[in-house]
Amino acid sequence: MTLYHFGNCIALIYVPYYLTYKQSGLYVCGYFLRICSHYCIFSSEYGAFWKCMHAGLIYIFTQLAKMLVLATFFPDNVAELGNDLIGEFLKSTVDLADLIGLYLVLSSIPGKGHSKVLTAGIGWATAEVILSRALLLWVGARGAEFDWIYIQKCFESNILLVQHIVTATLVWLWSRHDLHSNLRTIVTVMLVLTAYKTLLLDLLITTVSAGPWMGLLIKAAVTFVYGFLTLVIYGGLARVIGIF
Amino acid sequence: MWLEVDEIFKNYLPYYFLVFLPIFIIVSPVNPVYGASEFPVYRMQHYDLHGVSHGCRSAAVNLEAKSLTGWTTSRHCVVTRLKDITVDHFRNIKSKAGALLVMLPENWRNLSLEDKQNYMVLENSMLIQDVPVPIYFAEYSPRLDSIISELSYSINADDMTKSSTEALMSSVAANGYQISVSVGTPTAQNDAKIATIQGYLPGYSLDGITPTIAIVAHYDSFGVVPELSFGADSNGSGVAILLELVRIFSNLYADAKTRGKHNILFLLTGGGKINYQGSKKWLEEQLDLLDGSMIQDAAYVMCLDTLASNSSIYMHVSKPPKDGSPASLVFKELKSVAAEAFPHTGVDGVHKKINLADDILGWEHERFSIRRLPAFTLSSLKNHKNFHKSTIFDTRDSLDIKIMADNSKIIAEGLARHIYGISMGNVLGKSWDTNETHIEGWLNYLSNQPRSPQLLSDKDNVLVNILKDAFNKYLRDVKVLYVVPDKRDPDFQFYTITNGILHVCSVKPAVFDLILTLVIIVYLIAIYLFIDKFPMLYAFVSSLTENKKVKVN
């Protein structure tokens, strides 16, 4: 029955990704032909799949760079949360590299508006979910021991998918020159907060001493509020510059 | 080119997947992780003595955990606390359940006398007959305790008093536990050998007649669990007192002026708990010697056994010693020393004939009495059938060092008076007296490690070597004699596997996974609808900003 449980977890974690990918693929296909004529020889053969792969590769590269920095400056990253807040804060600062990575993705993959942002976000998130969750589930959820943590991790990955699409959108918005300067400030603040979001949420969850399920709920709520705000800004800009 | 690759992926990936995934699943290890909970557990005794098998005969466990009242079949491993289990339960489990795991109480090293008595009765009844199912003991741990509580609670959920929905819920969501102890099958230890250590202090007298006194103590311990048999009193106390006598008399004998008329032979025998195999073998060797051993003209053989449990010393004999014989003289000396210096300690004689019909001897001196040597055992216990001689609850924490120090003083003084022929006044005193810290040091060392015979039967055992070194330091002609069981008809046979690691996996019933699938499907449908209707949300959000812009304008 444990293999069955593994199947459950896999369905829970990857099906939302697949659904999002499919849905975004619809957007992508619409733009596909138009893009073809514009960009260099390679990009004309780029499907949404390869764009996602491309985003994934940049994700891997970014993570390696981050690890290098973390291993150099923070050799012992096993400290309990709350013991060393400044250390944790500095570690989260390294997560700003993710934003640079996403910027790279956005600037290197062709496309416009919706499709560009979505492929970047999905590719990034998929690379993360495959690299960080697949092994955990394979080793953990298939064992005889039952633990809720695997189901929780799956839900968390679903939340992360939303988060990464939101981050990609924010980075894209930030890179636009035609963004209103007030909005630009908001977008910058939100981007910086993205890097520290994990730390802040963990702190919040430990201070209110919420259980794992409650913690998930808090994360989901915060991420959705975040997503909604981003969507409002994006919607406004998209209407102005005329992409749908 | 890229398009082709893309196509290959799109067209063939699912088929490859169908082939490779099962292969991948098959070749990967069956159980990649064990449960998060691991406990060290100790297996029950497993040995044969005189062709009769004792203890549990198997070791490997991989069963579902159930509480003491909830188990039904041999596919269940009963997990319980020691205080809950009774002899009747045990009898039932022994014949019908799959395995038994007993958790000892938190303070099992220092129990109240009443609890100890109850547990010892149970412990003894466990050992009477052999048990076909594996039986393990674990020390107290909060995690295991909570698992046991949970198991007994889930039984209550099956009650008819609960409503049917509650029962259904609990049957779906109940936490089950899978218990596994991955060890091989227990095999006989063919290379087992039991060491007996002897050392010697030569006496001196003008007429050249030096009778021999032998002082004997067995150094092993016994309990239902070999790895938890610390045997502080039985027979750590006997060994500690013997080593104290070694220290005192070797000092006295070192000087020609204070050298006694008797040779003193010290003997630490092994296998005392398995019918005194060590002394049996040693006697056979000695009596077979052609030139005659000094044991043949022994004045008496004094065995020390369990001397710390209470303030009284019993001299156990198989035949009452004749008046005027050395054994009766030393008895009188012991009595007078106790009367003079330790009035609360009684010294009495107990006479018990050797039961030749019984294979198992009661006291160690009977081994010598059978061979017509004058022998007696000094012990604080009145009866050889006392459970205190073979229990895991005989620990250092439950021992009173004061009583033991007093008893050792009586024995040392009585022996000295007899050896030097002084009936009045103290022979030992001041720097020659028994030293409590010395006794305590040895007792602590001995009771710090399990000393069940099978654990001491390996080659170059550390404990045996340390005892040998202690003898070498004080005595002459130190020899170690090994008992090896006969290949064809062994007197005793030990078995491997005395401990293991218990893995407890929490598992859910199969129904739970099915229900989980349903929940996940509902969740995924919700996600699908959300994504499908996302353009509507987007349109709504866009209209929001549009309105704003209008207002701003």
TrEMBL record, chain A:
GO CC, alphabetical: endoplasmic reticulum membrane; plasma membrane
Entry similarity comment: Belongs to the TMEM147 family.
Localization of this protein: Cell membrane; Endoplasmic reticulum membrane
Lineage: superkingdom: Eukaryota
Membrane topology value: Multi-pass membrane protein
Keyword terms, alphabetized: Cell membrane, Endoplasmic reticulum, Membrane, Transmembrane, Transmembrane helix
Keyword Transmembrane tagged: yes
Database matches in InterPro entries: TMEM147
Designated name of the protein: BOS complex subunit TMEM147
Species assigned in the record: Acanthoscelides obtectus (Bean weevil)
Lineage start: Eukaryota, Metazoa, Ecdysozoa, Arthropoda, Hexapoda
Membrane-spanning segments: 54-74, 118-139, 159-175, 187-210, 216-237
UniProtKB/TrEMBL annotation, chain B:
Primary location group: endoplasmic reticulum
Compartment list: Endoplasmic reticulum membrane
Topology of the protein relative to the lipid bilayer: Single-pass membrane protein
UniProt keyword Endoplasmic reticulum present: yes
Pfam families associated with the record: Peptidase_M28 (PF04389)
TM annotation in the entry: 12-34, 510-531
Gene3D superfamilies from the UniProt entry: Zn peptidases
Keyword field: Endoplasmic reticulum, Glycoprotein, Membrane, Signal, Transmembrane, Transmembrane helix
InterPro entries per UniProt: Nicalin (IPR016574), Peptidase_M28 (IPR007484)
CDD domains: M28_nicalin_like (cd03882)
GO cellular component, one term: endoplasmic reticulum membrane
Segments forming domain Peptidase M28: 212-412
The family this protein is said to belong to: Belongs to the nicastrin family.
Protein name in the entry: Nicalin
Organism: Acanthoscelides obtectus
